[in-house]
Amino acid sequence: MDTMKNTVGQRTTEMALQLGLLYKPADALKIGLVDQLEPEDQVIAAATQTISRWLAIPDHARQITKSMMRKKTIDKLTSNRESDIQYFVNFITKDSIQKSLGGYMEMLKKRRA
Questions:
Q1: Where are the alpha helices (H) located in the chain, listed in sequence order?
Q2: Name one GO molecular function term (predicted).
Q3: How many CB atoms neighbour CB 37 within 10 A?
Q4: If you ran DSSP here, which 8-state letter would residue 20 be given?
Q5: Which of 4, 8, 16, 97 has the CB geometry, 3.0–4.6 Å to 21, for a possible disulfide?
Q6: Cα gap 111→27, rounded to integer Å
Q7: CA 86 – CA 75 distance, rounded (Å)
């Protein structure tokens, strides 16, 4: 949740997670969830070009910047890890949640067919 919020913002994340939204590629691009879209036959070339841009930056500079940008989120996740795991396990194992997830999975199967 925190990573998505840092990427697309509070409101978009809140709506997406509460409504269980699945984004089509163009919509994911529009909200900033992905950086670019490529035709399937051009994915490798585009990925190679993108990674070349990143690799042109010295490793230490890239790592320091990334760590600084993500420090607050990493610290929060690390300090709350055990309580987050316990909360998730307690939540996900409830009968009502399992039933709801089962219904959601069935809906996704029908949508895919």
A1: 2-8, 10-19, 25-31, 43-55, 59-79, 81-92, 95-112
A2: isomerase activity
A3: 12
A4: T
A5: 16
A6: 18
A7: 18
